[in-house]
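Our preliminary data section would be incomplete without showing what the modeling component actually yields. Below, a chain of 215 amino acids is followed by its predicted structure, encoded as tokens that our downstream tools consume directly.
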Amino acid sequence: MTTFGFIGSGHIGSQLARLLVARGHDVVMSNSRDPQTLSGLIAELGPHARAASPAEAAAAAEIAVVTIPLKAIDSVPVEPLAGKVVIDTNNYYPARDGQIPELDDESTTTAELLQRHLPTSKVVKAFNHIMAAQLTTDGQPAGTPDRRALAVVGDDADARARVAALVDSFGFDPVEVSPLSEGWRIQRDTPGYVARHTAASLTDALARARRYRDM
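Predicted structure:
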């Protein structure tokens, strides 16, 4: 079993934590406030969960999950995540995050911003294009006809494979994409974003995606 450290414990983070503890993994949850503010969630998650500071969660993690507003990624601990797989669930919402020129002119992507902040970590984009509630309702056993698919985007093949295996364990068909810079293909307003797709139709949706400037 693996220890997952969460930087952020909102809708997506708490849903992923529920899936993980149900499969016997340990989770260390954190947020931008005091760990005691997570007492209700920890009580629900049970003995496989504990609350900590972001730095402590990062240090404890074998795999980390960054699931915070994009505008706050500079607060993600760097040194404790060196060499580790870091799952990035973030999306860019200007109304929430403010205008980020590099994303507005599409010279980079959300996951590349996190990768730049964590230069020695292995960032993998995942779980950013499904409604949080559906993470615990839409999973199905492997081999189920029309099983829902989720994209897993990253540079490092081993890191992608680890996250893809996790996606499969949650009940979804993983569709691997590389390099990390291709993560824009599953950002908001693209054909694959929040829509339900099988592996075949998600692959097609990724291919049909267009940059905002070309929409």
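The chain is about 30% helix and 15% strand. The mean pLDDT is 97. Preliminary results of this kind motivate Aim 1 of the renewal.
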